[in-house]
Amino acid sequence: MRRIRGRWLLQQSHDVWPISPGSDKIPDGWPGWPNGKKFAFVLTHDVEGLRGLERCRELVQLEKELGFRSSFNFVPEGEYRLPDVLRTVLTQEGFEVGVHDLHHDGSLYSSERTFQDQSLAINRYLQSWNAVGFRAGFMFHNIEWLHRLNVLYDLSTFDTDPFEPQPDGMNTIFPFWVPCNDSRGYVELPYTLPQDSTLFLVLQKTDHQIWSRKLDWVAAGGGMALVNVHPDYMNFSGNPGPSEYRASLYKDFLTYVKSRYQETCWFALPRDVADYVAPFKPVRQA
Predict the structure, then answer these.
(1) Sequential DSSP letters for 162-198
(2) Calpha distance 278→3 (Å, rounded)
């Protein structure tokens, strides 16, 4: 059913996906990227279930071999528990750990009271994991409620994505500041490349052409190319099932990125981007 709906959405949304015209407008207060780099490239992973947890080390090895580092977002109280040893290994190897929802059951935003109650537990995990980033399950988002979380940045939005259950995009390929009434705030990092699940499971694409085309457009606009990839759906054995795709598709894309943009791109973790832009507090253009 998702694939049937996906094909229909693809026809209806060709003028705003994967590229939304105008989303390359530079925010007010934008400082440019560090060291004169042309654009930023950020890798993130949501580990949704036990299958994804078991594949984290293979994904880490793939990225390390190509010289990349990424952020892994784990569900604190889902169908698995994050082993301390895995969290330690990730941080020691230069990767980042973030919090992905609380239960990943769609309940987080069911009401403001529910969000408030769950935010207390989420903040405890943020502190105990020494994490500064958050992404909600199913990309649900309310950027005002998120001020209840003790985060440096949030990853729960996107520039444009009609395939999501809450499809209101931020219409920007740049990070931006979300202020709070008491002058505090956080950095919003929208993903700007389509999710792997959309490309390879819903639309059943067999190459990284959409990723690379969008990446080239983001690079030309000087924005942030941020992608969300799920180890749950990546098959490393070469025989993917109906809810999987070949890990070589992701590897081929990373090889393309490295070969074309090695000298002009800032390869960064989400917390690096948020640390850099937070003092400037760039304002998203309406």
Answers:
(1) TTSSS------SS-EEEE-TTS-EEEE--B-S--HII
(2) 39
pLDDT digits (tens, 9 = 90+) for 88-147: 999 999 999 999 999 999 999 999 999 999 999 999 999 999 999 999 999 999 999 999
Structure tokens, 3: 């694939």
Mean pLDDT estimate for the chain: 96
CA–CA distance, 234 with 195 (Å, rounded to integer): 12
2-280: CATH topology:
TIM Barrel (3.20.20)
Q: Give the C-alpha separation, 236 to 244, whole Å.
A: 10
Q: How far apart are CA 210 and CA 131, in angstroms?
A: 31
DSSP 147: G
Residue ranges of domains in the chain = 2-280
Q: Residues 189, 175: contact at Cβ < 8 Å?
A: yes
